[in-house]
Amino acid sequence: MYLLVVALSIVCVTTYFHKLYYSFYYVDGKSMYPTLNINEKGNLNKDFGIIDAHPSIFSHLVRYDIVVAHYPEDYNENGKLKDNATSKIKRVIGFPGETIVTFERGFAIYTDGHTPSGEEAYEAESYYVDGEKYDLSTLPYTPNNTSSLKKVSYYLNRAGENDSEEDQYFVLGDNWGNSNDSTNTSVGPVKRSMLTGILIAIQGQCDIDNNGEAVNLRYTTPKYYKL
Fold first, then answer.
1. Could you state, in order of their start, the residue ranges of all structural domains in the chain?
2. In b/e form, how buried is each residue of 142-179, taking b as 16+ CB within 10 angstroms?
3. Mean pLDDT, residues 122-127 taken together
């Protein structure tokens, strides 16, 4: 009997723990096209899946993970999240201590402390890591091939650098040029505290009713983005 009680207690605690940190999430908009919401039409056919919000998950964050985040506009002057704050889903491209440069059809990442002069010649349909050129086709995802990125350059602070209290990350939507992300100067690099979860899997599609609630959930074979 004692073992049964212990086992049930463990199940209850584990269930509560997972409910506390794993959450349902539906994707709104086309900023992650062509990865997510390929068949979205208005409030119909939106991808939905699971977000992992365990605090420890961010110690396993790697380049090109898809994250859910808030932006500076979502916080009031006291640093509190506004009641009407909306979460965004983007892909992490740049990490603390790195410099990232975006150009029309590509980006460059410098992890070695190199500071771009601004006179570098980057070739379209390419991305660069510490000066090494790669074709966009070798990325682990496919960005929209019909639009271009805004040109920006950022050094991403580590916590404690340049009066920054937190690590900074550079996020992009896969729908280049059609996404409100770190290439927008009103957003810029995103602080660590603004990252709220990592996309684990897309489980199917749903529709959204007039109250903003997901309805008509249609489950498909899950597609995993983080194991």
1. 2-224
2. ebbeeeebeebebbbbeeeeeeeebbbbbbbbbbbebb
3. 94
Average pLDDT taken over every residue of the chain? 89
DSSP per residue, 122-148: PPTTEEEETTEEEEGGGSSS---TTS-
How many helices (H) and strands (E) the chain has is answered by 1, 13
**Alpha-carbon dihedral 98, 101, 102, 103, rounded to 10 degrees:** -160
Residue pair 214/208 in contact by the 8 Å Cβ criterion: yes
Task: Provide mean pLDDT across the span 32-52.
Answer: 96
Whole-prediction pTM: 0.89
Q: List CB contacts of 13: < 8 A, sequence separation 6 or more.
A: none
| CATH fold group of domain 2-224 | Umud Fragment, subunit A (2.10.109)
